[in-house]
Amino acid sequence: MTRKNRANIFLIMIAVVAISLIFQYAGDFLFVEPQSLIDSGEKPVQPLQKSWAQPVKYNHLSRTINGLKQEINILEVNLQNEHVHIKPVLSFDKIFGFEKLSKIVERKGAYAAVNSGIFYKFGRPSGMLVIDGELISNSTGKYPVFTVLDREAVLAQINTVLWIEYSGKRLKISNINAPGNLGDIVLYTPAYGTKNRAGTENITAAIENGIVTDISKYSGSASLPQNGMLLTFYLLPGQSSNNIPIRKGDKVKFSYDSEFSQIIQAYECGSWIVKDGEVVIGDKDEWVGVMTNRDPRTVIGLKDKHRVVLLTVDGRQPGYSAGFTGKELGQFLLGLGIKNAAMLDGGSSTEMIIKNQIINKPSYKGLERPLGGAMIVQTEY
Fold this sequence. Notes:
Blueprint: H1 3-26, E1 56-65, E2 68-78, E3 84-90, H2 101-108, E4 112-115, E5 129-131, E6 134-137, E7 144-149, E8 152-157, E9 160-166, E10 169-173, E11 175-176, E12 185-188, E13 202-208, E14 211-218, E15 228-234, E16 252-258, E17 265-268, E18 272-275, E19 278-279, E20 284-285, E21 289-290, E22 297-302, E23 307-313, H3 326-335, E24 340-343, E25 352-354, E26 357-358, E27 373-379
Parallel strand pairs: 11-12
Antiparallel strand pairs: 1-2, 2-23, 3-27, 4-25, 4-27, 5-6, 5-17, 7-8, 7-17, 9-10, 9-16, 12-15, 13-14, 13-15, 18-19, 18-24, 20-21, 22-23, 22-24, 25-26
């Protein structure tokens, strides 16, 4: 055997070993799963990844469904890898306000993001919100909540009971970071802003470092102490401060009970689309509106407890992408192997960004709409 032949054989052996190691390490994350393409014959774009080992897969599909063109973006996140995280965020990290998705992504250093769900006036979340273990907004118990529990994802309706613990006792409170009605007891944290925005007579306790430092009567708003909270009692007619159970100097702690423990991230969505492998979306959604129209849609769904799918479909753009009805959306999700899914906001809010690039085409002239918050994907690569 000549020296040249021996050298060639040696190079071939090195190449075979290298390729074997790549396949062993990259595993499933190197390729888009064939079964995720429910219409055959379409070539997916290459996954956008910072490295070939990153467990985030992106796929763009151009489809003709029921005679109409559809442009669909699918981002799949595998929570089994400890270097990837998915979480909700608020615009400017506050209850109130609106921010473009591109600005949120830039500010958070996110790898990817979609618009999140529904918001009340001025950007207040419509339901449960937990960020990094902190309850920001309470659940309604009416809609599915996307929840991350110790790197496992769940979509479920959640009920919570809120408490203030003081002097060995527990005081049930009405809400957190929300407007109060007569007779309510509401806790306000810095996420709500600098004031409790109370519009009626109230007695408010200022809490700093877990200690009640002041209890005063107000005809309107009270200011949040620095690094503290406010506990506001919205007075009923004739009620006085003598009816307030806590006292200045009390040590207090906020807690809540729910069906789930150790919630790390949570976001209350719109209606169920798919539940336990069946299409359950109706013809109307309280937040999103009429579901028999073809509109842009944003969805969060689960293939299993580790694989989370964020999906957008563009709409209201004849000749480019029509958008889905609710039932069309549900059937499409089943074809992707998604067993549970819920609505996020849609219409002109529908948007997906990956690596600082707007991947879809927003329905209002391709322009971003200011949002109350987002669902972001962060990586440690």
